[in-house]
Amino acid sequence: LLRSSQPLTGPNRRRCREDEKLLGSILDEEERGFIIDTRSAQAAKQARMSGGGTEPKSSYPQWRRLHRALDRGRPLQESFVRLVEACSDPAPSMERWLSRLDSSRWLGHVKAALSTACLAAQCLDREGSKVLVHGAEGTDTTLLVTALAQLILDPSCRTLEGFQGLLEREWIEVRVGALRRVGGSWPGWVFSPRIPHGVPQAGHPFQLRCARSASSHGRGKQEAPLFLLFLDCVWQLSRQFPFSLEFGEQLLLTLFDNAYASAYGTFLCNNEKERSVLCKVKESTHSLWAWLNQPEEKQKLLNPLYSRNPLVIWPSVEPQSIQLWQGLFLRWIRPSQHLDEAWAEIQKLVKGN
């Protein structure tokens, strides 16, 4: 499993022999690989006019390109805002609630993300093929797909420690030019040889994407809840496979809260260069993981029903299977006391056995 940014072919369809050689070296002579582009074919074509583009078949003959359009940027942010407004309606009728939920299109984004991740996982698991995922810059929907695919395929990523490692390597600390192994049952490479000049590091730009909450009157041009969408997809997996993830909903809620406002430095800045060189985050702040891994805090995050599942978990992406994450979107409306008490009782029963 590989990921990168888009090839910088531009309107003149420039070629990069080094890039062609790199991707060619990954495949055996008769082997075929898949490139999953998270843009529509039309958007990828338009990107050439601004210096981006796609892999021409003539230059990458062993790779088959598949387009699976995933919204990002303003459309995704507006979808999030509409959902929050619908959930904040003090007295909606059933008809009004269902209409506003549908018009937000949020659950459609969840379905699309899971479907694309399943496609990547199927190419790896059932076809036995190499898979390269990219969109434009490789810092948004690309991370969403590769991280979810690893959760689906790799049981080690579904442990608390493995999930923290997944977030670190996919969303936070990936470096440009790095070519390194991803551990677990599904080894692969993470690389970014196509980052345009001026983009110092890969990884998700949290400061730009999570500058304000959906309740804010201000609208940042680069805001987009990609990380929230990832957490929502993980919650969908935990709901469909309640025994397969070692961590529970509380961890996902904690990560969401800290991505937008945190006393820790884990999600500060936009890339590793800003964190390590400009802001020296590790020297001047504390890590969120250090707090969460304290025994008392860690116990609150664990799923008492967890039983290690070595198999691939294939989520259903049928419309009936995708549900609203009430624990997040309705947590200020629906009291969680009874649910918390139920989980506490489950933990007691598990310990008693």
From TrEMBL:
GO terms for biological process: negative regulation of autophagy; phosphatidylinositol dephosphorylation. It comes from the Eukaryota. One of its GO terms (cellular component) is cytoplasm. Residues 1-329 form the Myotubularin phosphatase domain. Signal peptide: none annotated. GO terms for molecular function: protein phosphatase binding. InterPro entries: Myotubularin (IPR030564), Myotubularin-like_Pase_dom (IPR010569), Prot-tyrosine_phosphatase-like (IPR029021). Belongs to the protein-tyrosine phosphatase family. Non-receptor class myotubularin subfamily. This is MTMR9 protein. It comes from Vireo altiloquus (Black-whiskered vireo).
